[in-house]
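Lecture notes, unit on protein representations.

Consider one protein chain, 365 amino acids long.
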Amino acid sequence: MKTMGHRAVGTLGLVTLLAGCPVTPPGSTTTAGGRGGGCATSGCVCSSSDFGCNCTCGGQPTTRPPPPPSGGSSSSSSSGGVASSDSGDGAVPVMVRENTFTTNNLYGVHGAGGVLVAVGQHGTIVRRKAGGWVADVSPTQEDLWAVSLSSASNGIAVGRNGVMLKLQDGVWALLPTHTTTSLNAVWTAPGGAAWAAGGTAGGDGVLLRYNGFTWWRVETPQPLPALYALTHAGGLDAWGAGANGAVVRLPVTGMVTVERVPQDTILDAWTDTVGNGFWVTLDGVILRLEAQQFSVETTGHPALLGVAGFQRVVAVGEAGTVLARIHGGWVTVPSGSSRNLWDVHVDEEDVAWVVGDHGEIYRLQ
């Protein structure tokens, strides 16, 4: 299928885990720890059959453990197409540096109800309200990889060694998870339900679910790959994504299912209320998902670590990479930073908030 100049690369036929591929393709090299890793090549393709799993990696596999190496140059490539979300006036957004009073790396950011929270290294939590950033009291020293708010005073943060924090009425507290596997992503649904997912490169993934009252581990017929992203799939369902192009459907009821797209590790995803959106990968590819069909929108970038949108969609990555989708094409936004930018949140006023190493936070407007 070809649509508006895109190359179709996968359709979600939702193959069950019983036909799943191994986490690591033969011949690839991985390094445990952090968010991401795996086969960082020009492309890895895995296909399942009744005889097992066949994986092919182009080029020479290399080790790309997170955090990605600093330095390097940022390149830009765009394939066009029609977007469901774009910057309205076509102008390239401007980056403005925020003062956070921390030099710890910041790995995740999210907002709700006019409040923004960023989390990161050594349990760092900073919150923006009334126009400025302040430090929250954190009950952990573990690195926090991701955060999701359901309201201005309630949310979940997750991180290294299975740590999970709950924000309730503005106060953070530890929650038991009964796992020491790193939790890399969290998504809170309307009504209080939530998912958390994790794993390390070369290891099995872990999936936790919350029904508004308690967390429990979701068991699957076969081990999950390491998961690094969670996003909305419509209703109360979620998408998960991770190692070697794994795309996992997480329904409120029914079986967890997985398919793979012929891309490297998927590190983040953003979708709208019906489940259409954009996904970014370790090898610098942006995928578009629409009507359960994936297509490649742009390639040739440094590792892309985060993506989010509202009317505007923004992707961020290593070595200060920032991309914005304007009139159906992706353009490079000068960031003024050479550090890794790990995550982005776009609020209801279409302002993008970017976080990265050394406590950097930027506002795109």
